[in-house]
Amino acid sequence: MNTIPDVSSHDEPHSDASGSKLNWLRAAVLGANDGIVSVAALVVGVAGASDSAGFILTAGIAGLLAGALSMAVGEYVSVSTQRDTERALLAKEKWELENEAEAELEELTALYQAKGLSRATAEEVAKELTAHDAFAAHVDIELHIDPNNLTNPWQAALASAASFFLGAVIPLIAIVLPPPSLRIPITFIAVLFALMITGSLSAQAGGANKTRATIRVVAGGALAMAITFAIGKLFGVVGI
């Protein structure tokens, strides 16, 4: 019977894997973007108030470490919650298969019908998959979860912290190395160039328009630096 190979569940793991990679790329780019903007705004604000390289470096390092740790903790908590939810759903599915086998078979049949198969074909597919591995069949089409590849909170936390750190290093280096008279312009140029790259990458990962995405990211970063620089200048003049 040649209707069974048309079932799209064979393609779903590849689609899910591709989507997972895109999500990781998007998260890494956004983490780097956060690191660039937040630390750039911080050090430019301090540079607006003081010419002391020591003050600027201290503030920049503090912002880098605080931001990276915050990103790591937030991502760990978020992914841990997601992992707990996935485990609870898997446990619930196991219980239902053990205690409500007939209802689960009917549910699987209905899911394949919803994909466009006829009732007879959907029943045949559901019965064959149930006979082979009922649990795998249900978690695939119903939950879209791979029980052997659950999200890893530690991996997510480290990736998030690393991407933030790498992004934050750019404005930190740009503002510390040049002479005082060139710190602000060089930092602005370095940061805006870096944001052009992250904006383009984030648009590519999400399939969005690169020009619009890049303009939004660059404009947001420029505005953040301009505001904090103005605040730093104001507080530097007032002497608070």
Automatic annotation (TrEMBL):
Keywords: Membrane, Transmembrane, Transmembrane helix
InterPro entries assigned: Ccc1_fam
CDD domains the record matches: Nodulin-21_like_1 (cd02432)
Gene Ontology MF annotations: manganese ion transmembrane transporter activity
Organism superkingdom: Bacteria
Gene Ontology terms: cellular component: endomembrane system
Biological processes per GO annotation: intracellular manganese ion homeostasis
Membrane topology of this protein: Multi-pass membrane protein
Membrane spanning residue stretches: 27-49, 55-77, 156-176, 182-201, 213-235
Pfam families tied to this protein: VIT1
Keyword Transmembrane helix: yes
Compartment(s) of residence: Endomembrane system
The protein, known as: VIT family protein
Organism: Candidatus Kaiserbacteria bacterium RIFCSPHIGHO2_01_FULL_53_29
